[in-house]
Specification:
The complex is a heterodimer of chains A (235) and B (77). Chain A has 235 residues and is mostly helical. Chain A has helices at 7-39, 53-80, 83-115, 123-144, 148-162, 165-175, 195-233. Chain A has one domain (3-41, 50-233). Chain A is built from seven helices and no strands. Chain B is mainly α and 77 residues long. The chains are: A mainly alpha (235), B mainly alpha (77). The A-B interface holds A 7-9, 11-12, 15, 18-19, 22, 33, 37-38, 42, 47-49, 51-52, 55-56, 59, 94-95, 98, 101-102, 105-106, 109-110, 112-113, 211, 214-215, 218-219, 221-222, 224-226, 228-229, 232-233, 235 and B 5, 8-9, 11-12, 14-15, 17-19, 21-22, 25-26, 29-30, 33-34, 36-37, 40-41, 43-44, 47-48, 51, 55, 62-65, 67-68, 71, 76-77.
Chain lengths: 235, 77
């Protein structure tokens, strides 16, 4: 079933594609930055502070998306006992954590001119902070637990427990009265953001996704070489 | 014009600091990941070099080992 995940073939693909992803990321980021900082219009209510949205929103989306992927992979690790799942999950975590931190910090910076405060124990912000703690616990488990089987089980369990928080983050703005506004972008239904702001937001999201892919590829290659290094030790 | 771009109606410090923080975070994560990759590659080369010729010959036949060795010589990014 998982012949597709041949480690030799996978390493060939991941190690060769890194430089192309890097170039593409730089191009998309340059376009995204010029669109979001200079070309997109200011908001009639929030003025130029709305530009923070172009880094804050994609970072939050990526943090949530990566953790969702890690959840599927962790469930897969338990069900299929396949080591490629944990390798992918472990390689995704660093970029997910960084995106989570970016979402929290840029949200805090955006909060000052918009709400008049750097921080509020609002449902969305608090649940995002909890997500960052789960990312941190996941990464920490790989640093402190030495037994491989134990760390795979514990780290997967951390992600599965943390996944309970994902619907809370998504629906927090509907379930509670929060400082955050309701969703403006909907998969089903009308989007309330004007195209002049939606396009830069889309480009910046693409740039963030490419960055995540770049870090994933580099981290995955590192993990594969680590495995090979251990193999050489046994020779 | 430049002053307008920098000040952004008084919102400049907020906007610029958010973007700079994002870019610095990206650069830091990229550098840390790159350094970890290079460290593991160096370790691999050192261990590979200490093996006997018979062992290295059989290892070279595996795709993944060939690729690591190739990547360690030509690291472009």
């Amino acid at each position: 079933m998982f012949n597709f995940f041949n480690l030799g073939k996978l390493f060939q693909i991941t190690s060769r594609s890194t430089r192309y992803v890097f170039v593409l990321f730089m191009i998309v980021l340059a376009i995204g930055l010029s669109e979001s900082l200079f070309l997109s219009p200011e908001d009639y209510k929030q003025s130029h502070s709305v530009r923070i949205m172009y880094v804050h929103v994609p970072a939050a989306w990526m943090a949530l998306g990566i953790f969702s992927m890690m959840t599927f992979l962790s469930v897969g690790t338990f069900i299929f006992k396949n080591k490629k799942f944990y390798l992918v999950s472990k390689s995704l975590a660093p970029s997910g954590f960084i995106f989570n931190i970016i979402a929290l910090i840029t949200g805090s910076i955006w909060g000052k001119p918009t709400w008049g405060t750097w921080w509020a124990w609002d449902a969305r912000i608090t649940s995002m902070l909890i997500l960052a703690l789960f990312y941190f616990m996941y990464l920490l488990s790989w640093k402190i637990i030495e037994n491989k089987n134990t760390v795979i089980k514990i780290s997967s369990l951390i992600v599965i427990v943390g996944a309970i928080n994902l619907p809370i983050i998504k629906f927090s703005v509907n379930w509670w009265n929060t400082l955050h506004q309701g969703p403006s972008l909907k998969i089903i239904g009308e989007t309330t953001i004007h195209s002049s702001m939606l396009i830069p937001l889309g480009i910046m999201t693409a740039a963030f996704a490419l960055f995540s892919l770049l870090i994933f590829l580099m981290k995955f290659n590192t993990e594969m070489i680590k495995i090979k290094n251990k193999g050489l030790d046994r020779l | 014009m430049i002053n307008e771009i920098i000040s952004m109606n008084g919102y400049g410090p907020y906007v610029w600091s958010a973007f700079i923080f994002t870019l610095v975070s990206f650069a830091s994560l990229y550098l840390v990941t790159k350094l970890q990759l290079l460290k593991e590659q160096k370790k691999y080369i050192a261990k590979f070099g200490s093996l006997s010729e018979a062992k290295t010959a059989s290892l070279r036949e595996q795709k993944i080992n060939k690729e690591i060795l190739l990547k360690s010589v030509i690291t472009k990014i």
